[in-house]
Amino acid sequence: MNPVTAEVTARIVERSADLRADYLERMAAARDQGPGRAKLSCANWAHAFAASPEGDKQRMRNPTAPNVAIVTSYNDMLSAHQPYERFPDLIKAAAEAAGGTAQVAGGVPAMCDGVTQGRPGMELSLFSRDVIAMSTAVALTHDAFDAALMLGVCDKIVPGLVIGALAFGHLPVIFVPAGPMTSGVSNAEKARVRGLYAQGLATRDELLDSEMKSYHGPGTCTFYGTANSNQMMMEMMGLHLPGAAFVHPNTPLRDALTAAAPKRAMEIALGSNSHAPMSEVVDAKSIVNAMVGLLATGGSTNHTLHLVAMARSAGVLIDWSDFDALSKVTPLLARVYPNGSEDVNAFHAAGGMAFVIRELLDAGLAHEDVLTIAGRGLRHYQTEPFLQDGDLVWREGTAKSLNLDILRPVSDPFLAEGGIRLLTGGLGRAVIKTSAVKPEHLTLEAPAIVFEDQEELLAAHKRGELNRDFVAVVRFQGPQANGMPELHSLTPTLSVLQDKGFKVALVTDGRMSGASGKVPAAIHVTPEAACGGALAQVRTGDIIRLDALAGQLEIKVDPAELAARPPAVAKPAGFGYGRELFGGMRRTVGPAEAGASVLF
């Protein structure tokens, strides 16, 4: 085991000892009560399957026949979730064939940041994660299930499902992905047209045509953003069937994996020799594995929020210092857009998760001795699923990369370090994604230009006021101020300015998209401006130094002078688009480094 991985894991275990012990005690108490259906009165139990087909009713009368919950994020508006329309029927048929039953226990909302980017609805995006967690709890609280399947893919959906399911961690839980859409227009071409539009050199029709050729069918978006980082983490944490992450929707292999999930869920239920409750699958080691996977693949910065909250739900306490320490010893093994030119389909074809996991285990960077839904040991996940004469089988994945432009071994990585670093200094604590930033842009010192929201920055660019070196300070974008929307709309504009030769960077208490790329961005600054953070006292013209190599985020103003300045005041929270319904969440949400959650 790499000594840093071991040391980080040990300090997480020590830090979490009391919280983890309390969590496991609660899960043991729930497990010891036996299957939920056995505790229900006849009237309660009859209610639970009154509308089921007659065959299911007879099986559900059998006290030993397992019943599997389905919690689904299905809607037919969003490409990633549309394939789930077919999944319940596949799952129910497979459960019946295995001697059990399956029921759709409930649905969770699934919004798309790709639709709401730059719109008021983005202010609900982060909070939707905790709504999803609570919705998952509502679905499972009927207490009629022996295991559960989580049908979710995208940004807040998987973290929310994890958080909610961990409240029922005495049950085995398997995550069932839908898979990515097939590849469309190249990412380089998509970025080129976006850049032209940001400069006024392409029409809206030309931009829409390009975007439609990129986002063109069922499945997740194919860039390596938060949604596909979710799928990577579910493999690293042992919550998928091995190799399930990046198989296309509506294919025989995807259907076979979907049908295998309820069968496996019943095989690992209470009383089996392979019992694998979620509370034991998700522990400090599996959380460290998820962090290492995120760093090795250049994954989304959103998980410096989500993974913290997910871990906390299992009684495991992590912070940004853990990400930073692991990043310094975890090499970057993947170049997937926006960290490279190719998409997740090319990554999967080059060797994908099986190759990454083999490399991380062989290098001692990830923990092998973990419980997974596939069995004891993460080595299960260096295999790949195939159909052999119509049957689902697994065999060893490739031991060498099939495309060194996309995927490399630990012995010859793209970078010696991972993609996420901690920044500290006079402006607070922040994270920065470095994997897509060229070395010459990792250090910057320039005057600040302060904006209260991203619309102000975009307007200043249109007026021609930003053709110079500067650090854009976009404040009052934290969770308490306005729900911490992603500021991905800034990426094309700042990229164009950087391409013109100007030194530019972003400093914000908000989020960037999982697709954030080549412009250095210190994000999630905490304390946020609305909660006494120093960003509220920054003025245009102050010199800011961002040094990702040294881990510094400094303001060249005497600390006493900075503290004496009257802080700026946030605009009142917006109304409309449902934002008024989330006022309670804005008032009670925790800080970014604690996961920006309202649940704890």
UniProtKB/TrEMBL annotation:
Dihydroxy-acid/6-phosphogluconate dehydratase N-terminal domain sequence ranges: 66-379
PROSITE patterns attached to this UniProt entry: ILVD_EDD_1 (PS00886), ILVD_EDD_2 (PS00887)
Pathway(s) it belongs to: Carbohydrate metabolism; Entner-Doudoroff pathway
Cofactor binding annotation: Binds 1 [4Fe-4S] cluster.
SUPFAM superfamilies reported in the protein's UniProt record: IlvD/EDD N-terminal domain-like, LeuD/IlvD-like
Highest taxon of the lineage: Bacteria
Alphabetical UniProt keywords: 4Fe-4S, Carbohydrate metabolism, Gluconate utilization, Iron, Iron-sulfur, Lyase, Metal-binding
GO molecular function: phosphogluconate dehydratase activity
Coiled coil region boundaries: none
EC number, as in UniProt: 4.2.1.12
Residues given in the record as [4Fe-4S] cluster binding sites: C154, C221
Domain Dihydroxy-acid/6-phosphogluconate dehydratase C-terminal: 405-596
Cofactor annotation: [4Fe-4S] cluster
Catalytic activity line of the entry: 6-phospho-D-gluconate = 2-dehydro-3-deoxy-6-phospho-D-gluconate + H2O
Lyase among keywords: yes
Record has Lyase as a keyword: yes
Main function: Catalyzes the dehydration of 6-phospho-D-gluconate to 2-dehydro-3-deoxy-6-phospho-D-gluconate.
Family from the record: Belongs to the IlvD/Edd family.
NCBIfam families associated with the record: edd
Name used for this protein in its record: Phosphogluconate dehydratase
Organism: Phenylobacterium conjunctum
Lineage: Bacteria, Pseudomonadati, Pseudomonadota, Alphaproteobacteria, Caulobacterales
